[in-house]
Amino acid sequence: MALFGQRRPFSIRRLPGFTMIAITCFVLLYTPIVTLVVYSFNAGKYIAIWEGFSLQWYVAAWNNAAVQDATIRSLVLAALASLFATTLATMAALGTTRVKPFRGLTAIYAMINQPLMVPEIVTAVALLILFAVIKVATGVQGLYYLVAAHTAFCIPFAYLPIRARLEGMDLTLETAAADLYATPWQTFRRVTLPLLFPGILAGAMLAFVISLDDVVITEFVKSAGQETLPTYMLGQLRRVITPEINAISTALLAISIIVVSLFFVITRKPS
Amino acid sequence: MQALDDVSVTIRENEFFTLLGPSGCGKTTLLRLIAGFDQPTRGTILLQGQDISHLPPYQRSVNTVFQSYALFPHMTVAENIGFGLEMLGKPKSEVRETADRMLKLVRMEELRDRRTDQISGGQQQRVALARALAPRPKVLLLDEPLSALDYKLRKEMQIELKRLQSETGITFIFVTHDQEEALTMSDRIAVMHAGKVLQIGSPREIYDHPADRFVADFIGDTNFLMAEVLASDGRQVRLRLASGPEIAVELPENRSASGRVTVAIRPEHARLAPDGAALNGTLENIVYLGTDTHYHVRLDGGEAFVVRNQNRRDSTEALQAGAPVGIAFEPDSVQVLRD
Questions:
Q1: Which residue in chain B has the smallest CA separation from A196?
Q2: Which positions are tagged coiled coil (chain A) (predicted)?
Q3: Could you tell me which CATH class the domain B221-336 is placed in?
Q4: B77-126 residue pLDDT tens
């Protein structure tokens, strides 16, 4: 056995070229983002020629009424959509994990996660047509249509972490609550919900970021004057591009990072 | 599939009652039925004369100590203990007072504001006990609560449980597969196997007068011998051991015997005897166990027989494997088993 005793145990970190591949991946991932952020501080008016440091494009974006309008709409839309989607996803997750397995449960999983599988453009066209019919029939206008559309495609993103959390939960805890005189509602309120909360928060934040980022469905569903930040930026690209777009992108990036960091801070176990 | 078959048990008030049996015997099913986690398809469960068979768990004055403890991880020790009373709608001051009293009862006062993942397994066990006792249930169910503890702690908790039961005066129904645990703590034991209750009795009755082969085998060590009933007169029976003499034995109440029967003799009730032996054989093996020595004997009739001898300071090891030996025992140590 001494002959084989010299061999070191297998470790992926000692694979030849592993470090190089890892570094290449990180460079490819972050170079565009770093470039975007750096050029958002460009003093000149071209997005590819560096002319010195300046905050002028942030000031310009901040004072741009169209950007203000789109930003507020994006945030309101993301907040409403993630609220509704998370509520529905929580109910769906409870309905698919806290019941005896029944025929067709797998089909229901597939139906809940449908937005992940159907090409987004197809959903977009379908919603455009459906909403057009409804608008003609009822005459109702407004942000409702975008909220409904965003809620729908955010549900699976909220559903997956909530369901994972529910499935990992010890069912004996709910049994114990019932044993200690808690009615089914009290058990849910005092035991299931608090333990589920990190999952719900994760789902809500994921849904928020997904909604904030959406272009395709929003572009099809929005009415005139209902620009969100991404559709506004897309519209700008058809005209003159200035580093203002970099500044807006950087701000959007910052919001996403803050949301994700908040999530980690809130769900971290106090030690 | 039927998990329980014709089980009829009457548990007395203020009793430490144990359901003992191997895994899969139905003891946990019975416990879940009493707690209300499962519903019986047939039969009834009465609690002080009231039919509770189909009440949900939160309407039964029955609390459970779970095998995994099932403490709420998002609550402190004191909040866990107060949970039951809070759900019963007791005022906050009463909940707090009872929680403090319970913490004292299980000697955990200093840990009242700890989170449940910051305390040891033995301490979690005590919190689980205090939580189940706090609402003063009529019956406390314990589902193998000691199985996750190490040997020394388990010994301590056995005594602790017995103390809690007598101090609170609550009826305990304890489920275990550990015969030693059952013998140590119980007022009465029900031995279960394959969904049936085989025997109910005090630890001494179960050990000294096992009803059948399964009970005799499951609890303690036993030698089984075949015998033939020669004559019986009520509870007085004369029988002949397959490889030995005729003996007269007395049957336990409500037991009769005829034809070929199995009898059981505990290893510590037999002794090696140079002469006047009832059975003869060859010594095959000597196993030294510190407090005891086991002598494995092959009887002349072919059966195996074990004799247990307590070791004394002056006992010398004179016997060698292969030596012919005789075995003696008192007639009243012979137990006639039900077929």
A1: B74
A2: none
A3: mainly beta
A4: 999 999 999 999 999 999 999 999 999 888 888 898 999 988 988 899 99
